[in-house]
Amino acid sequence: MPHPPVIDGFEFARCNSRLAGSRRGDSLPRLRECLYAPDGTVDFEIEGVPEMQGRPALRLQVSAKLALQCQRCLGRVDVELSSKAVLLLYDDEAELAAHRVEVEGPEHVLAGREMQVLDLVEDEVLLAIPQAPRHGQCRTHDGDARGAPQRPFAGLRALMGGKR
Ligand SMILES: [Zn+2]
Fold this sequence. Notes:
With about 160 residues, the protein is an alpha+beta fold. The chain is about 20% helix and about 35% strand. The chain contains 5 helices and 7 strands; from the N terminus they run βαβαβββαββαα. Bound molecules: zinc ion (ZN).
């Protein structure tokens, strides 16, 4: 798709609009940095809500299948994730600033006439991505290196001529 979707936030919310799509994981530049392999997809759906907690809002849902790097064995681990967010829209920087400190609950964003949907999608995926992805059970060469401390000299004996 040549043109990324752009929405007018308030208009989109007022009209109860809906937009759904799918992208390759590596088409999102910040996400690409986290990927072990470029295959994988991100599906998204964004829906306008005329009023939520007194504000126009966007409801965003993402689901993704991505190849990440296992932090234990450094191999590829396929991860599926899904996440939902509610974005309350503001057109005033000062008003928005008063709400930014909240951690729980809906997010508060400055809405514009040209909001990049894929930026919102990418933000959501990055938040949902596990910080330290791991296999449930890593495939290892010697059978039981799972969680074992690293042995930096393990290969040294072999290098030195295989003394037994
Ligand atoms: Zn692993």
